[in-house]
UniProtKB/TrEMBL annotation:
One of its GO terms (cellular component) is membrane protein complex. This is ABC transporter ATP-binding protein. Residues 7-252 form the ABC transporter domain. Keywords: ATP-binding, Nucleotide-binding, Transport. Gene3D superfamilies: P-loop containing nucleotide triphosphate hydrolases. Transmembrane segments: none annotated. InterPro entries: AAA+_ATPase, ABC_transporter-like_ATP-bd, MacB-like_ATP-bd, P-loop_NTPase. It comes from the Bacteria. It holds the Pfam family ABC_tran. GO terms for molecular function: ATP binding; ATP hydrolysis activity; transmembrane transporter activity.
Amino acid sequence: MARNHFIEVKNLVKNYGTGNIKVTAVDNVSFYVDKGAFIGIMGASGSGKTTILNILSTIDRMSGGQVLYDMADISQMTEEELSDFRQENLGFVFQDYNLLDTLSIEENIMLPMALCRHKTSKARLKEEIESRVKSISETLHICDILSKFPYEVSGGQKQRAACARALVNNPKLILADEPTGALDSNSSAMLLHTLQIMNRELGATILMVTHDVFSACYCEKILFLNDGKICSELERENMDKKEYLNRILDMQFKIGGDDIYAE
Ligand SMILES: Nc1ncnc2c1ncn2[C@@H]1O[C@H](COP(=O)(O)OP(=O)(O)OP(=O)(O)O)[C@@H](O)[C@H]1O
């Protein structure tokens, strides 16, 4: 069944600085993300991956072009509208988890819902929050650590808690920036599996920046960036994992993405 374009990025430009010190971090980039897709962005350091993610997350403003979410142009929104938009539509997973050490895991997960300006009554909101935290924690297998504090749990558990927090508001889009960057291989695999559950079972659209080919294998499509431009795209289609992995490695080698072939 055909899916709707959920995000449309049209001729996106981002410049930092001015005059002689102007850096074009994103140079006329266009792409789309379908509802329910799991898309990866890869490219060498400095190629503009995080800048694109920051613009899509509305944290950073674009210099030119358009970003449409379900046809709504975010460049036309006021700060207040952007803040509501973020809270209602987006979930974030970063490399460094961003959990607050003074709150328990459960309180960390609840935070976005508590901050959301809900129209429901306080009693109803409490009920809603508790049932949502319970169901997400079950899905992500973290029920047994809810009362602990972030410093009392492992990196992988922290990252799953961060995923739960990203998902608690039922966001339409999860933006993940190097989510496995600080994890060992077991925790990485668990986190990627978690993202897959978010995508397949909970219906979230995912856009993930990664340097890691094994993480990229989880994406149905990968955009490769070079010097602020999309230089190539790769879709998994019917490829098996090994073939997909090899194609990603080849593409990285071609664009000089990482020193994976270095001696
Ligand atoms: N706030 C800023 N001010 C000036 N230049 C910036 C700023 N942020 C990013 N840049 C520049 O924009 C370019 C793209 O940076 P960006 O962080 O998006 O790359 P990246 O692909 O995410 O890199 P990495 O993989 O190392 O995180 C780089 O040349 C970077 O130096």
